[in-house]
Amino acid sequence: MAQSTCFTPRLSPLNGKPVLLGFDGADMSSDAGLTLLREIERRAGLAQRLADCLHDPRDPAKVQHSLCDIIRFRIMMIAAGYEDGNDATALRHDPSFRIALERGPETGPALCSQPTISRMENLPDARALIRMGREMIRFYCHSFARPPSRIVLDIDDTFDAVHGHQQLRLFNAFYDEFGFQPIVVFDGEGRLVGTLLRPARRPKGAESAAHIRRLIRQIARYWPETEILLRADSHYCTPQVLDLCDGLGLRYVFGLSKNGRLAQNISALEASTAARYVRTPGQKLRRFKTFSYAARSWSKPRRVIARVEVGPMGRDTRYVVTNLEGGRGKHLYEKLYSARGQIVPHCVV
């Protein structure tokens, strides 16, 4: 409760203490956690790193908000759950945001406005965006005390709905919304490595391969001896990506879409697994098979691991393709995938 010099006798005491009312409180904020985030950002210097990738065309004599301050404000807004740049209209006066940007909570000019943020977000051209992407990878690599002997990179695309007329937005029938579909890359410990904003459609093989090539080359600049294992869902299992992984010496495990030729290799296993489950119903029964397979568009045969599962909900068969050698199919599959068929975090083979 706020303290006041006026006591209101109508309010009953609480645990023997008087309840006071007051209307003379200072500016308030519900985002006090930004003071902790401020310390992290000051130590990492991420906003300044990104600002250094941009060319500021403004007249220095008329600049009130540096690019670093604008980017830092935008980072703080997103971290606090304010995704819309229009929120800056109110937040530019918020005490916590002012402290996070090294301003006094009650004195001095306000933070930058929404139009200023919009101009900053539309400032980078293609080359500047590439520089910013490279800086994020450098930021990730420098976060390690020493280069790791191996890392796992999980690559995927995710849908990001929009509610305006932003450039590059497309309608995605699966999500029944307009939005973007950025590619994001995390390592096996859940740390963000890089991201690429793009339209809301599934990336084709050439686009995926180009993004992976830039990513791996940048990591190799800082960690030339680090072994990399790349994991992704089936729509990244394209001839371009597979050949790129072979050319760059990457280990990989990709989901593989079902087809008739794959089914021929495991039809007997599926039948025997179903018959065995009928004899001992109840628990799920899982069996594995590894074999060589080459799609017509592939440059060479590759190792495929099939997992056949039969349970109360019926039969479920999944495939992965990998260039990892040694070990039985069951051992490799269970290391790389969970029981639900999703990529397992924290897994290094």
UniProtKB/TrEMBL annotation:
- Look up the domain of life of the source: Bacteria
Question: In what residue span(s) does the Transposase DDE domain sit?
Answer: 13-343
Q: A Pfam family in this protein?
A: DDE_Tnp_1_4
| Protein name listed in UniProt | Transposase DDE domain protein
Q: Which organism is it from?
A: Jannaschia seosinensis
